[in-house]
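Data deposition worksheet. Section B asks for the primary sequence of the deposited chain exactly as it was used as input, without tags or linkers unless they were present during the calculation. Section C holds the resulting structure in token form. Section D is free text for depositor observations; keep each observation to a single sentence. Incomplete worksheets are returned to the depositor.
Section A, Depositor: J.P.
Section B:
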Amino acid sequence: MPSELQPLSAARQANLRRLLNPRHIAFIGGESAGMAIRVCREAGYRSEIFALHPKRREIEGIACLPSIADLPLAPDACFLGIPADATIEGDPGHRRGGAVCYASGFAEIGGVGRQRHDALVAASGDLALVGPNCFGLVNYVNNGSMWLAAYLPGAGPRGAAIVGQSGNVCIHFSMNQRDVPFSYIISAGNQAVLGFEDYIEYLAGDPNVTAIGLFLEGIRDVPAFSRACLTALERGIPVIACRAGVSDLGARLAASHASSLAGSNELYDVLFERLGILSAPTVARFLELLKLASRAPLPGGRRLAVFSSSGGDNGMAADYASAAGLDLPQPNESQRSAIKAMLPDYAQVSNPLDFTAGYWGAEERLTPMFRTMLQEGGYDLALIVLDHPRMELGPEPRKPLEAMVRALGAAARGTKVIVGLASVDALSMPESMRRYALDHGLMPLQGLDDACAVLARWAAYAAFRRKLEHEGPPAPPAALATLDPQKGRLLDEWESKTRLAAFGLPVPAGVVTDAAEIGQAAGGFDGPVAIKALSAALPHKTEAGAVMLGILGPSAAGEAARRIGANLAAHKPDLRIDRFLVEPMVEGAVGELLVGVKRDPQFGLVLVIAAGGILVELLRDSVSLLLPVTEGEVEAALRRLKSFALFDGFRGRPRADLPAAITAILAIARYAEANRELLLELDVNPLMLLPEGRGALAVDALIVEAAGS
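Section C:
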């Protein structure tokens, strides 16, 4: 994972600023340039526009200049609607400001395309280059768009900035019917020059940007991306990601489509969790999160109140909210008594609250009822569930809905409760109702399941930010040198354990001996011992019959050594063993863990914690963390294991010594960090967990490091 990319230089940052705030734009090319000029004018851009073409006299009524050299100044922005080879050519003296490279035929096709990519990067200098193989950018701040599809202006100038690798998906975003406020939509394409990390770093400091949305197919440099996201975190700008390529087929398509590297899904999730990135599994939730992050403050917690006049709506709301992890506290006795007096005799007071069809649109009755719930209940969030009638039915059916929106808005005034209007059906909230809700202080959230999910994510993000106030910012994954995994050197178990023990990993008190002295070595222990052949050529000793357990006494030890020799002669005839490890048996363990470290070319050193023994294969029970890790992260990972209940006193079993397990895992992580330049692989299996107060012991260990170290 070589971090070859440097933080955005001052010169390129200045050029990116010019690109996104252009005083003049040059459109270069034929039909595509003409289309981009039309879109730019229709969006409302009124500053200077140049048109360049070597043969045409005019484009869209603008007299054409024959070449870049004929421009009277270096424009702040250029749209390059010309073939790939022509894109690389031109006068370097005018390569200031920024440019959108529309052409394809670069790294995404390999071969000659890769050569074009390298030439484009070399020729760009400090130019802020978007693309190539991209659709351009939509600028809602000053309307200086370089884009090839009509879009509705007016969503800005302040709002979320989206950066996406897919131009067509970015078009979808510009056409959304969810009232997401935007500042910019940038189709990043192949990211030959500007990548996600550059856009994030710049946009996090733009006062027009409320949140940053990423449509990802892959990350080209994880450390650089992480540093940029931490900058956004420090500046209070939420980063929200929607990722394509999460299936095996999707990952292959993503890699071929945008010359990107789509890595392990789990490691993306781990990275996003560490950096506080809000991950959205669907485009709908991605847009709803961007809307929420741009329009709502952070909630104080995850306590939700729900209102509707339908038992069915309330039942669904309770299901979706519970599944999302939101709390639905019931009204206290004071609230229950006050609200009961406001409702019909047959009504029940609960959360969700069914205010009955008889109160449909009754603003004067609902306002005090809602106020009693919100001002006395300690809620952080509230939803009223209403689906809008079809517009063809005219204004009359809408009036009761507007009255109920007004009632909830008035009830929440003066509180810190974030209130929303949620529709069960995402399509049953027209623009007029969305705008009406916003005007009265309610967040329009489309689709009840999505509404609950995004509120829960927003509450989790708020908790993450509060946690940072006490713990400080998370550590980004560090870059790793590239090593050849085929040229590794395996350390035997004794050397592996000795190295790890120096970093604090508890290991059994073993003795290394030869066959002649093995009886004496075994007799030095009070109880049964384990006897293992020691050789760097035996990474899997058990399968080779090179481990004997429960051996008691010198004569049994000698026989065990002979049996190991016979097993190895059959398994690997050319292997000669003259060293053995004798260790006391570990008894009374509550459970086993597998703890390993692997070297990932994209994400760096990855710590894997899994259920030991057969459970890891049976349950696929593992959690991955990116190094470096904290004590809190390790404990949370252990508690996420499906088998954690077995270590936590399940059905009266003894509890495992959890603090000792955490200490042991942190020791393994410290060793990996200290040896990051050479470590290829590390495996402790099993780490035996003893009952509370008795510790943990690494019974077996294996280290593979770069050859020649």
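Section D:
Confidence is low (pLDDT under 50) at residues 251-263.
The domain at 10-295 is CATH 3.40.50.261 (Rossmann fold).
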